[in-house]
Design brief:
Structural class: mainly alpha
Number of domains: 2
Distance between the termini: 44 Å
Radius of gyration: 20 Å
Strand content: under 5%
Helix content: 55-70%
Largest sheet: none
Oligomer: single chain
Shape: extended
Length: 91
Amino acid sequence: MTVQLDWPPDVVARLQQEAAQSGHGLGDYLLQSVLSNQPAGLAAPSPTDPEEANRTRLCREAGDRIREFRATNILGPELTVRDLIEEGRRF
């Protein structure tokens, strides 16, 4: 299957650079990104940029807190997601 994407040149250049750094061609790099559910074009921040590194750390910590919260909060045996959806439609 062939897919054609019309992306801005700066995005394509960044993706080509990341693909080259990973040792893959652009097509293989994008396919690998899609199959692994990792967004392409979002390379890890440079360790020389402390502001970006701090932002990344805060995002990871927020994600960890969300996952921890989700693990300890369940709906219960008689409540389903469908019930919550229907409840939301009432308003």
